[in-house]
Please model this.
Amino acid sequence: MDRDGEPTGGFGDAHTLNVWSTADRDAPVLLWVHGGENTVGSSSQPEYAGDHLASLGIVFVSCNYRLAEDGYGALDGVRHNRGLLDVVSALRWIRRNITAYGGNPGNVTVAGQSSGAQTVAALMVMPAARGLFHKAVVHSLAGRFFTPAQARETQHRADPGVVHHQPVVDGDTLPRSPLEGPYGVELMVCHTADEDEYCNGTCVLCSGSYCVWWSMSLWRSWTGCVIGSVAGSSGRSRGFVPASMCSA
Model:
């Protein structure tokens, strides 16, 4: 798979993807982005297997991407957000090739959890990803995005207990913070019931007339509706969509 013009192996050989499909044609496509503080994790983890969703008629794709220093290190003379650009490359691969696996390139959802949700949020405002997907699911969004200066300082200090590698709002690959809309794609937000105590009201997505706050005490900003409850590896979760998407 291409790396947006970079030589294969230039930052390691982690840019691979997996496809599960039982579909013949025109099936919806789901790209899953794993979490792990932008530092660890892999699409090969057993809990990320796509066989069950594939059995329901979804073409399930998961991808690896560059992590830690390779993916998000603030390096002189090197483009920021290389991990994000790897996921954009995965979306480009889907656009070019997913029909061979029974998928519809015009019906692609990107979903992720924790730092994977952070990646999905970033994709919603990245020019390079525009038009490559149509729906987004962000689960347990890790809500911090660095400026270039913050990235350099945080990685230089290397304080224990601090996530050193976050997407960087550099005005280029990521032109603005994805915590503020508009987004241009349909969005579902999920969180677990026990995230309130450490989110402290900082994890929020806003678009137009609605905001979604993770902090349960701040749901007063929400004007959408609960669309269901999902039991997953992150605990009991609730999903939300904007009011305009709620059925009567």
